[in-house]
Inverse folding.
């Protein structure tokens, strides 16, 4: 199973040798072909053998080439992604306008729902407007609810003055992230035997990827969420590395937690089944798995004097009132929905710190916290502190 994303950022020669992609730069690195999901060639000073390119196509590896500014500019796509490509293309040409409009209505409705959920995570009240747009959705989005939602969404998320046409680090990060997921969708379209030019709604004669542009819409908010977390002041190598982590995003789909490339694979197949069987209920949409964090506060405060004991009691009461749970003596923990929420929690601790003593704060992911071992004793508590979003009591 392919799971690695390989980024070639420096002068190197890439070739194929006995089942491995060999990267010859300052040193030699070999990566087994079965492990590679995506290769991103960032540097223009990279050469690749035709043998390697042929093997990458055979193994259905997504290859993205970047320009001199290290931005994605092209990709490698095979002519034949499936043994029954001819039959699949005939089916694609036979998709009726009604079937395509029905599927497009579901796709764009889910996109707006995803946007609303992102706004909810960041505490934006405009989320309710987007849910109203979903309720107002007509067949084929005849009233352009998608366009209205986009205007509200981007202004609520990035500020009233923000526009998608302006050249700034935020838009650069958004475009970079969108191009990464677009290339992944192109791979799945071709791998399933279809052609990328014939879309459902997108119909631009100059767009080689109309179908992938349609299918990717519900996945765009994943990029938006990452850019919000990044808060880019510039968009250079470090910021691009952060955005490349999108391939490691975990998403819920069809009752399972999958990494982004696998989630796209499941989703694309479900859409094609819906189109071919004329049944939109077959579409499996994603649910975002947010980066739940734990903020752990450890403190050692002086209690020798009455004033010290008063400050100790005041700080401890603040933690409890703020939702912190005691893990053990002088160690308290609170669950945060994401990194931004964790930052606000830490800022609150700073504002309420006593004048003397030692206070340490540690931020860790929920996944890391879940790996904590009880060497002696066990957890006892009746307070709900899991990261489950739906709780049935």
């Amino acid at each position: 199973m392919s799971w690695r994303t390989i980024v070639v950022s420096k002068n190197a020669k890439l070739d194929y040798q006995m089942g491995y992609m060999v990267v010859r730069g300052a040193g030699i690195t070999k990566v087994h072909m079965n492990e590679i999901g995506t290769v991103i060639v960032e540097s223009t000073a990279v050469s690749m053998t035709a043998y390697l390119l042929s093997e990458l196509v055979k193994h259905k590896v997504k290859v993205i080439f970047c320009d001199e500014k290290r931005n994605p500019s092209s990709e490698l796509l095979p002519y034949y992604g499936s043994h029954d490509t001819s039959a699949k293309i005939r089916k694609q040409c036979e998709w009726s306008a009604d079937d395509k409009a029905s599927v497009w209505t579901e796709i764009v409705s889910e996109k707006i729902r995803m946007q609303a959920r992102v706004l909810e995570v960041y505490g934006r009240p405009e989320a309710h407007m987007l849910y109203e747009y979903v309720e107002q959705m007509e067949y084929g989005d005849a009233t352009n609810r998608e366009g209205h939602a986009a205007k509200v969404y981007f202004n609520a998320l990035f500020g009233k003055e923000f526009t998608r046409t302006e050249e700034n680090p935020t838009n650069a990060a958004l475009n970079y992230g969108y191009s990464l997921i677009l290339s992944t969708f192109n791979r799945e379209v071709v791998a399933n035997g279809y052609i990328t030019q014939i879309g459902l709604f997108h119909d631009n004669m100059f767009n080689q990827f109309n179908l992938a542009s349609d299918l990717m819409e519900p996945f765009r908010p994943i990029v938006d969420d990452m850019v919000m977390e990044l808060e880019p002041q510039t968009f250079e190598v470090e910021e691009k590395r952060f955005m490349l982590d999108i391939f490691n995003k975990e998403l819920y789909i069809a009752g399972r937690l999958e990494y982004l490339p696998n989630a796209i694979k499941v989703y694309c197949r479900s859409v094609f089944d819906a189109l071919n069987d004329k049944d939109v209920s077959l579409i499996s949409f994603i649910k975002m798995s947010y980066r739940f964090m734990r903020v752990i506060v450890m403190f050692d405060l002086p209690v020798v004097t009455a004033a010290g004991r008063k400050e100790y009691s005041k700080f401890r009461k603040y933690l409890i009132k703020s939702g912190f749970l005691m893990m053990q003596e002088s160690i308290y923990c609170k669950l945060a929905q994401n990194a931004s929420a964790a930052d606000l929690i830490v800022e609150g601790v700073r504002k309420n710190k006593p004048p003397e003593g030692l206070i340490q704060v540690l931020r860790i992911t929920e996944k890391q916290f879940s790996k904590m071992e009880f060497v002696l004793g066990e957890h006892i508590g009746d307070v709900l502190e899991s990261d489950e979003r739906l709780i049935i009591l």
User: Anything to note?
Assistant: Residues 86 and 193 are 8 Å apart (CA to CA). Residues 97-121 form the longest helix (25 residues). The chain has a mean pLDDT of 90. The longest strand covers residues 293-300.
